């Protein structure tokens, strides 16, 4: 029998932080499609969101509906638009057109840059389209908490932060939430410094004191790159790559991640996730990068995490782990240097975005080898294989 619980989320209306809501919650689980920074700035980019991105997400929604009657929702990780405030309701309408609940958090580019030094006015377009900047919604055996962590002063002057009023509100929410529930904290900017050993940022340390002893998953965007941070026992951040590649100007993100959305599936309180890659029939994260005629086998493993294993076999014989190494993505650089044709300002931006990453692996088979198989095992035990003849 379906287990349904009636959740009454009593939240403060002080400072427009959130709204009181009552809803029925299916505690068996849910599907959450996380869309990283859609960020259309022009009509052409908005049209591409509709024609290139939305059809793929629609197929995911339909697949989930066919598999079960569990609820499916969409989460936008901020930068819903790129400074074009009139697009906010239009982007929301596109996602709501899929027939599922749509949640979002506010990004720096969702502020009206024509209203510097007046945060309330700058954020008014977003609030009118999406509602409260801070909210809590029960989903399955989790609580989705949306937090605005952009302290906005002007277009080029903003700081990741969560202020005292928000922290007081968060503390009240946490106190009212069953300790068994997973807390899913969605924000735009990262919770940790990914360039400095994944150290929690100053504002995050204050949040962690409020969240102490809870099972917590931060979900963020902003960086346009994929990363995972194990912050503490039971506390993790998933930083989601950008769904449109690199700001609509390249088909890959600067770290080599393909255009994709992160799919989180909760079943009986337990999570699994994977990237659903746009334009790819399978969700295999393995991309063969070897040069033609070279004995060396080189692969990229999109969405790689420290908890994964990348191993290889030669003619069926196990050879153990492949050698992991760091480089700038060659496919991304080939596109930038050989195919992209934009203004010099955009070309410089594309080159600056190229970031060395360590999701590359290689091996050198023996001269008489007839085939090599790469096996990637993710943290959930799922195995993806690719054979090179």
Question: Can you give a write-up of this model?
Answer:
The chain has 389 residues and is an alpha+beta fold. It has two domains: 274 residues, 4-Layer Sandwich (Purple Acid Phosphatase, chain A, domain 2); 103 residues, Immunoglobulin-like, CATH 2.60.40. Helices cover 22% and strands 34% of the residues. Strands 6-7-10-13-15-14 form a six-stranded mixed β-sheet, with no helix packed on it. It has a five-stranded mixed β-sheet with strand order 5-4-3-16-17, with helices on one face. Strand 8 and strand 9 form a beta hairpin. The longest helix has 25 residues. The N terminus is likely disordered.
- The level 1 CATH classification of the largest domain is Alpha Beta
Largest sheet: 6 strands, mixed
Q: Poorly predicted ranges (pLDDT <50, ≥5 residues)?
A: 1-16
What spatial form do the alpha-carbon principal axes imply? globular
Strand order of the largest sheet: 6-7-10-13-15-14
Beta-strand percentage?
A: 25-35%
State the domain count.
2
| Number of strand segments | 25
Q: Percentage of helical residues?
A: 10-25%
- The CATH topology assignment of the largest domain is Purple Acid Phosphatase, chain A, domain 2
Q: How many angstroms separate the termini?
A: 50 Å
CATH superfamily of the largest domain: Metallo-dependent phosphatases
CATH-level-2 architecture of the largest domain: 4-Layer Sandwich
Q: Specify the structural class.
A: alpha+beta
Mean residue pLDDT? 93
Please tell me how large the radius of gyration is: 21 Å
Number of helices: 8
């Amino acid at each position: 029998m379906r287990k349904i619980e009636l959740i009454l989320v009593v939240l403060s209306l002080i400072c427009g932080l959130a709204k009181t809501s009552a809803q029925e919650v299916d505690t068996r689980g849910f599907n959450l499609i996380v869309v990283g920074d859609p960020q259309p700035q022009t009509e052409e980019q908005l049209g591409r969101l509709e024609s290139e991105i939305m059809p793929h997400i629609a197929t995911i929604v339909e697949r989930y509906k066919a598999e079960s009657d569990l609820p499916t929702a969409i989460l936008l990780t901020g930068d819903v638009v790129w400074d074009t405030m009139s697009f906010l309701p239009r982007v929301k309408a596109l996602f709501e057109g899929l027939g599922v609940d749509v949640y979002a958090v506010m990004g720096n580019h969702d502020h009206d840059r024509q209203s510097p030094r007046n945060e309330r006015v700058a954020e008014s377009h977003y609030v009118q389209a999406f509602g409260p900047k801070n909210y809590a919604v029960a989903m399955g055996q989790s609580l989705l908490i949306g937090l605005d962590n952009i302290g906005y002063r002007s277009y080029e002057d903003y700081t990741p932060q969560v202020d005292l009023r928000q922290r007081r509100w968060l503390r009240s929410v946490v106190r009212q939430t069953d300790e068994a529930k997973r807390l899913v904290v969605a924000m735009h900017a990262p919770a940790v410094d990914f360039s400095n050993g994944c150290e929690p940022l100053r504002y995050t340390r204050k949040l962690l004191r409020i969240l102490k002893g809870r099972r917590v998953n931060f979900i963020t965007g902003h960086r346009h790159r994929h990363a995972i941070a194990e912050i503490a026992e039971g506390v993790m951040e998933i930083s989601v790559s950008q769904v449109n590649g690199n700001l609509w100007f390249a088909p890959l993100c600067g770290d080599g991640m393909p255009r994709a959305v992160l799919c989180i599936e909760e079943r009986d309180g337990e999570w699994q996730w994977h990237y659903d890659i746009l334009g790819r029939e399978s969700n295999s994260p393995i991309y063969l990068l070897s040069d033609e005629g070279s004995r060396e086998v080189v692969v990229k493993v999109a969405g790689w995490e420290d908890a994964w294993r990348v191993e290889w076999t030669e003619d069926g014989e196990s050879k153990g782990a492949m050698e992991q190494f760091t480089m700038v993505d060659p496919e991304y650089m080939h596109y930038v240097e050989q195919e992209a044709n934009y203004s010099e300002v955009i070309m410089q931006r594309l080159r600056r975005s190229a970031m060395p990453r360590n999701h590359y692996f290689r091996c050198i088979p023996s001269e008489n080898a007839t085939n090599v198989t790469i096996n990637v095992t993710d943290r959930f035990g799922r195995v993806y294989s690719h054979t090179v003849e």
